[in-house]
Amino acid sequence: MATMRNLIRRLTHRPKPSQRGPVLRHHKPAPPTHPRQPLRPGQIRDRCFPVRRRGLDPVEIRDFLHRVADELTTTQTALVAVQEENVRIKNALREWQTAQSARHHYR
Known about the structure:
Helices cover about 60% and strands about 0% of the residues. The protein is an all-alpha fold.
């Protein structure tokens, strides 16, 4: 009961502007000193978080991680397809340029 009263006091007590601490701004974290490997869907699916007393629902977290992993799988598959098509287009362009230069005999 006393804990509930303390919680209510903390939530309803608003410090005066002079009592407030410095305003903290969110900043970007420093870049890692070594390049990170890209996440794999299995790493996302298998990620575990410690359960806290008042933590989030572990089932919702697991569902969300599976959704993110599925989307990552789709994105990585699409990226590979685009990269393969890019190589195919570049090769076709090179062949076309070679054929055009052979026809025009530049001096």
